[in-house]
Specification:
Elements (H helix, E strand, L loop, with lengths): L1 E6 L4 E10 L2 E11 L6 H19 L3 E5 L10 H17 L4 E4 L1 H8 L7 H11 L9 H19 L2 E2 L2 E2 L9
Parallel strand pairs: 1-4, 4-5
Antiparallel strand pairs: 1-2, 2-3, 6-7
Helix pairs in contact: 1-2, 3-5, 4-5
């Protein structure tokens, strides 16, 4: 299974392609889509959609996984991030991809083993789980790879019915 992991943000949207085979995850590619503040909102969102469409055409993912929005103290960035998340979801829909959605805590729990992990711990585990010889950078790309790993782990234990995930109340894809 080839998974497109996404860490949405208006200025920086991280993406990562992870291939899972027989419980083993490998990184195929990763990157970050940048937009600039001197552009209006609509062109920035269009750029995210276009770039993610190009990623989907190049790597042919089977499914996508996206980090859900969580804002503690920094609520100012909630709306721009929500816009970027919407653009990413549109790109996934246009590519015909089902999307798994995970909270930052779920991703950290699956990748590191604790939902309270910091960035450094997430990057360390992403590097090791994907057998990389370097830290994936920028952080947004590392987070996208972590999201894809989380999805791979959850899919390996998910019940499948006609190729679709069976969702349980309160915990999708578990």
């Amino acid at each position: 299974m080839v998974i497109l992991g996404l860490d949405p943000g208006l200025a920086n949207t991280g993406w990562g392609i992870v291939e899972e085979r027989r419980g083993e995850c490998r990184c195929r590619a990763y990157g970050c889509i940048h937009t600039t503040t001197d552009q209006e909102l609509a062109p920035r969102l269009r750029h995210i959609v276009d770039e993610l469409a190009a990623v989907a055409r190049r790597y042919h993912p089977d499914v996508a996984a996206i980090e859900s929005i969580f804002f503690g103290a920094n609520t100012r960035s909630a709306i721009p991030t929500a816009h970027a998340r919407g653009a990413a979801l549109v790109a996934c829909s246009l590519a015909g991809l089902e999307v798994g959605e995970y909270t930052p805590m779920q991703i950290k729990q699956d990748v590191v083993g604790t939902g309270a992990a910091d960035k450094r711990q997430v990057i360390y585990m992403v590097r090791n789980l994907l057998h990389l010889d370097h830290d994936p950078r920028p952080d947004h790309a590392a987070d996208a790879l972590a999201c894809a790993i989380c999805h791979a782990h959850r899919c390996s234990t998910a019940e499948l019915t006609n190729g679709r995930f069976v969702q349980e109340k309160g915990n999708p894809y578990s």
